[in-house]
Design a protein that fits this description.
The chain has 145 residues and is of the alpha+beta class. Helices cover 29% and strands 34% of the residues. It has four helices and ten strands; from the N terminus they run αβββαββββαββαβ. The strands form two sheets. Strands 1-2-3-6-7-10 form a six-stranded mixed β-sheet. Strands 5-4-9-8 form a four-stranded antiparallel β-sheet. The radius of gyration is 15 Å and the shape is globular.
């Protein structure tokens, strides 16, 4: 994939996490400091007062492709949706933010197989596996925040 750049994508992802923290604080009327940023693989953000955890993803290509990519394996190991401990996932794409229950995404993708197709990408040698979901269908599974 010519567009893939891990370091740039990491920075974009961290910026999206900050944006989600701001949105959640405002939407849920949280006290300052009630959101904790995590460096664990299990989740990215936690609302301390509620115990809710969030994984944040930033899909930089959805506006061009019309598909949201949901990773589940890389380098031969389960990753992302397959292993997260987060209760919720928030996806940023095309300037919008949508929140999903993790269990809903797992059911729709792993059990009901409601994806457009499976693809392999990521950095060379990573063999990163992802499900592609049409943007409009994906939006219907969650709630815009």
């Amino acid at each position: 994939m010519a567009h893939y750049n891990f370091n740039k994508d990491l920075l974009d992802g961290q910026a999206a996490e900050q944006e989600v923290a701001i949105r959640l604080t405002a939407r849920l009327n949280l006290a300052e400091g009630d959101i904790e940023h995590s460096s664990s693989k299990g989740y990215d953000l936690k609302i301390i007062s509620k115990g809710w955890t969030f994984e944040v993803k930033n899909d930089l290509m959805a506006h061009q492709t019309g598909n949201v990519a949901v990773e589940y394996e890389s380098r031969g190991k389960k990753t992302a949706l397959a292993v997260t401990t987060a209760e919720f996932w928030v996806y940023k794409f095309a300037g919008s933010f949508y929140a999903f229950k993790t269990e809903t995404l797992r059911r729709k993708l792993f059990e009901e197989k409601l994806f457009f197709r499976e693809v392999v990408g990521g950095d060379p040698g990573s063999n990163t596996k992802m499900y592609l979901v049409k943007v409009e269908a994906f939006k219907s599974w969650g709630k815009e925040i």
